[in-house]
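new request in #modeling-help
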Amino acid sequence: MSHYSGNIDDFGMDTVSLTGSLEARLKAVQAAGFTQIMLTAKDLVDQPGGLDAAVALVRGSGLRITGFQVLRDFEGSSGRLHDYRIGIAKSMLAMCHALDCHLLLIRASSAKTANSDTRALVRDLRQLAVLAIPMNIKIAYTAGSEAHSVKEFSQAWDLVCQADMPNLGLGLDLFELLTSGAPESELEMLDPDKLFLVQLADAMGTPDAHFRVFPGEGEHSEALATLVKRLHGLGYRGAYSFAVFNDDYLQMPLTTVAQNARRAALWLGEDVLQRSVPLPNQIRLKRAMAA
Amino acid sequence: MLATSNLTQTGGDDREAIAEGANPLGLEGVEFIEYATSKPLALGQVLESMGFRPVARHRSREVLLYRQGTINIIVNAHASGTELSEKPVISAIALRVRDAAAAYRRALDRGAWGVPTHVAVMELNIPAIHGVGASRIYFVDRHKVFSIYDVDFTPIPMVDQLPPAIAGLHFFGVVQYIGNDRTEDWTEFYRELLGFAELPPEQRFGILPKGRILRSPCPLASRFYIQLIEPEMGVLDVEDDEGLQRLGLGSADVLATVAELSKRGVEFVESGSVHSDVRGALTKTWLGSVSFEIVHNLRA
């Protein structure tokens, strides 16, 4: 990819930022120069013509699927409810597989009834990971402020480590980190190979009413840039997905929103991570330091 | 000799590794291997040259049972819904377990995908989970009292129902091809669901030492292995090509077995890196997909 076209391969949009038909959204994302996109189960189910038609559209778009979202309220249930959750998980995995997508996102359970006993959570996460193995799907477990007990990424990381499955890793939502006040120094404990996805959004608004905007557009851009550089320093080389759900964007033309996302990707890729500057030994050196 | 009792996981595994002996399902070897093909006669000829004899046929479907010694192979040409490939594929492994229903339940609790019985290819109501690719793993627990074949198969008249094995051949293992970077995933799959353990890299059998070898938790007399092989370095995008690739048959004397099979018309690979020796041998590939590996192995 030339310098002119910009090096934004590592960044992807999320369909939640866009409104309209799946086809129009895929086209807008691709037209803005992105090579990957994060999909939501609802995108497929809502498609006229059903799942098969949606899968054909996605495959035809040529876009890589960053990941498929989102499994909610999965872990910590028991009895019939657990069986029900397993059924939902299997359905999500089957859709993910149909898309040739290799990453399923799960948000920590926000169910009030969820068991917060570590052993129960670990057992459920292991079961999910085993379900995903034959389909070659990785599971990214993400903490969130809405969760019942796993609100911070360090708690999610702890469960991922205890579950100890090769295809179970952490999903990191940097917006949560920006707005929760969790100490970012805790990022240092992460193993970059077990960090399966980083979601990004800048934050705008007051501390008790933050909303999401594209990176570089918000009031926390510098802090966000620092976090991204820190992850890069740790050795993270996976995808960054713009997890920007914002009602304003849903009433703007697709091309405008996609161009805003492109500007964010160029800012992160070229100014923050300096992707277009060739530094041949950089990766290896940082790997060695991380080890 | 290992303890053949079935130690249950006690939750003490954070303190000590109970590497040998743990056999949560009471696994005791392989009951049968199933091939699916639209050309069952062609595969039958291959099996016969390898020393197998057709001994029974399914009562209502195009399914044949071949046997030599303790090895049972089912050739399934009954297409139910899906188109069968001309190239035979290993479509199932049936494992002998202490209690099939309990084994099935335990596997589901740990993340296996159950196969609904109404789509099962055979009429046998054998619980099964999905394995690699389109293959299945059956759980069979009736091997001691009476044979599962008694119900659904009719013996072929005038045929020895227990044909002896050529040169003492016995089931040794199965080779599974996997995608790039998939070794840890599949190791965990077989460990978590069936109690397999990985062998250290220096422990190898036969003449094709690539990949990782997993040992079944069975007692020594019925122990078998799964060998996981990733693509050669630099080969991309083969992740959808995962599947069971070939069977390994154990022999106490590989060269004698090779000589015996050669007399029956079996050809072996004799190239620079792969050739028959006392450790093992590899047959040439029939029908575009079927080969057997002979591995030196003394069965207790």
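bot summary: Chain A has one domain: 11-290.
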